[in-house]
Amino acid sequence: GTQEMPVxxxxxxxxxxxxxAVACVVEATGSVVAENGWQWLRYGDVDDAALPxxxxxxxxxxxxxxxxxx
Length: 70
Known about the structure:
Blueprint: E1 2-4, E2 8-11, E3 16-19, E4 22-24, H1 53-66
């Protein structure tokens, strides 16, 4: 299923960005995803990763919602 998450508002110097994320459950397929140039992160590594601030905030909200210890 899917579930809308609360709107995340990020303010840039000249405009506001409202992010409406949708959480969804994905079943494991058993295959490994390893595209060139992409990297998987553990939730505990989000703070130190080179991510845009709105994405970092969104991942923190998801981790809190899922009860992930960081």
